[in-house]
Amino acid sequence: MKKFTLLLVIALSIGIVSAQNQRIGNGNKIHPKVKTGIALNKKSSNQSHYSKTKANYFSENFDGTTFPPTGWTTQVLLTAKTWKAGNAYYSDINPSDVKSAICPYSLPSETQNEWLKTPSITGTSSATNLFLKFWAGFSYDYLPSGGAGNPGATLICKISTDGGTTWTELWDADDTPAFTDWLWREVAIDLSAYKAAPFMLAWQVSGADGDLMGLDDIKIVNVSANDCGVTLITTPKTQCSLTNQEQVTIEVKNYGTESLSDIPVNYIMNNGTVVTDTIPGPLDSAETVSFTFDTKVDASTTDVLDSIIAFTTLAVDGDLTNDTSSFHYFMNLEPKTAPYNNTFDTYADMLGMAVVDANADGSSWGIADSIGVDQSAAAYYYYNSSNAGDDWLFSTCIDLAAGVYDLDFMQQIASSEYPEKLEVKIGTSNTAAGMTINVLAPTVIEDTVFTLSHNTVTIATAGTYYVGFHVVSDADMYALFIDNLNIAISSSINENETENQINVYPNPAKESINIESTDKVVSVKIMNVMGQLVEAGMPNSTMFKVNTSNLNSGVYFVQIQTAKGTIVKKINISE
Which of 222, 326, 334, 379 could form a disulfide bond with 127, CB atoms 3.0-4.6 angstroms apart? Predict the structure, then answer.
């Protein structure tokens, strides 16, 4: 049977996830495109280092207020299942901009023949190497070749030189080699044979019971023989314990038609001095290479946002608009302390987290809105149809003293037909090898509503630690959700260590809580899950009441100090 779609609206991205195609109730398949790394990379449209621009003969990104765009036309067979502009609901599948052109999938009885046509394109005769480039989004499974559709639908790109009377096929998604999941793919087609005459382009969705089709970022450009640029800055990344000797690593792509050697590459940190190095090459056409600079950067200042801009300066570069990858932000984080809480709802929650796709199958952890407790954001793992799970989600660094801790989180799976398996560990580094303390042995999870996973772990030596969630589910399961991670000193153990009997009730509470102790309580503090003090007092009594009517519902920690020591009790406030 087909698994029904999870509506995953990406809030903050932390890892690499490629969600498999599933349908949703409104007749569209949808999947999030998750960016890589908490360190953000943004392609800048303002190339401050250069002024030369490429020859761009035609472009369209469907971000305008009308659809189809001015001069474009559509040929419609199924009114409800034809081309339209993607609104905010679809924006997460867009590879670069706010909107995309999308065509929803149809039922097996609804055969599509939906066309989206450009206006006439002229003025390209002076181009040396005329290329059409566009992003196409589709699923292999629901192409005719994929076999999951009945009969399946495909996306075809065509060209006409007689005003749209006859069309010649340029590209067919059905000819794409088999791949897993719904993906955006960049397509490049040589149009040099058509540059002398006016022509039109069209994208046709043809067939029945296919998948959602997407189209975006269309360009007709003159591809230069020599052209390269920085596509990504991969390190440094936001994490704890960055030093004053951090490596700067970038990825450089050869966009041109000729092989390149001795490529000058540069970076600037925090608008400082330009650092230059050279990639010896050769770098073949369309090839991408990872490169690490010899000169390192000082990233040791904690909780300060640093930035790096990287760019190439090839002397014979034919297109200087794609040379720069800019606004790579990262931070050296100060470790958190217990009690620690992560709801996966804010940018601060994401800082320092890391994802490791250990089996390198493209299916791993991500963060999405509206799937957590009370429709909040949550962490999720999405399955791979061929590979068992071997994927880690690591917390940020947390300073823990020696002692016993409660480690609690909420867990849920997508379907009882597809149980998941999870283990949880703690370690001194956010790597699989660094996870040396067992918290939760590999456990089958079958809860289809959020359920508390309560765990106790002993920390023998004070230090900086990370929590690791490790999915070890069988292949072709579905999805696992994690929310509301809490780490706090274990109240039951500390109570025994102080040889003191303290009761806090009722729990859950509403208007107030009662505290009873065999020894006088010197002070009491109530903290929220962020460690912020919300109530405090010095009762100097063995029995007293604390007003909680002004507290919002949620989890709180009551720190109670007596002559024999201090303990922490966890309580819930309900409305």
Answer: 222
Domain ranges of the chain: 55-222, 228-331, 353-489, 491-573
Residues, the chain:
575
Asked if 207 and 148 touch (Cβ cutoff 8 Å), the reply is no
| Continuous H helices in 366-445 | none
CA distances in angstroms from 12 to 194, 367, 410, 421, 506, listed in the order given: 43, 6, 19, 25, 37
Closest CA to 124 of 173, 64, 72, 57: 57
CB contact at 8 A, 28 and 214: no
pLDDT, tens digit (0-9, with 9 covering 90-100), for 392-419? 999 999 999 988 898 999 999 999 999 9
Whether 157 and 187 have beta carbons less than 8 Å apart is answered as yes
- Return d(Cα 16, Cα 355) in angstroms, integer: 8
Rounded Cα–Cα distance for residues 255 and 223 (Å):
8
Q: Which residues pair with 326 in a beta bridge?
A: 42
Task: Considering only residues 338 and 523, tell me which one the structure prediction assigns the higher pLDDT.
Answer: 338
Residue 320 carries which DSSP code?
A: G
Per-residue pLDDT, 528: 77
Number of other CB atoms surrounding residue 455 within 10 Å: 14
529: left (phi over 0), alpha (psi -120 to 50) or beta: alpha
| Nearest residue to 230 (alpha-carbon basis) of 295, 328, 325 | 325
Q: Please give the sequence-ordered ranges of beta strands (E in DSSP) within 294-383, or none if there are none.
A: 305-312, 324-333, 336-337, 340-342, 354-357, 365-369, 378-382
Tokens for 121, please give them.
């394109």
Per the CB < 8 A criterion, the answer to whether 324 and 44 are in contact is yes
Q: Is 399 helix (H, G, I), strand (E, B) or coil?
A: strand
pTM of the complete model: 0.56
Q: Do domains 353-489 and 491-573 have the same CATH topology?
A: no
Q: Which of 173, 246, 259 is nearest to 215 (CA)?
A: 173
DSSP 6-69: P--EESS--S--BPPP-EETTTEE---BPPS-SS--B--S--TT------EEEEE-S-SSSSSP
User: What is the C-alpha to C-alpha distance for residues 311 and 49, in angstroms, rounded to an integer?
Assistant: 9
Distance (Å, whole) CA 160 – CA 246: 53
HSE of 30 in the Cβ direction (CA atoms, 13 Å)?
22
Domain made up of 228-331: CATH architecture: Sandwich (2.60)
Which fold, 353-489?
Jelly Rolls (2.60.120)
First to last CA, the chain: 41
How many angstroms separate the CA atoms of 506 and 569, rounded? Answer: 12
* Neighbouring C-beta atoms of residue 543, cutoff 10 Å: 12
Task: Please compute Rg for the chain using Cα positions.
Answer: 28
Pairing of strands 398-400, 463-471: antiparallel
For residues 504 and 141, give the distance between their C-alpha atoms in angstroms, rounded to a whole number. 57
3-state SS, residue 441: strand
pLDDT tens string 356-372: 888 887 788 988 888 88
Architecture of the 55-222 domain? Sandwich (2.60)
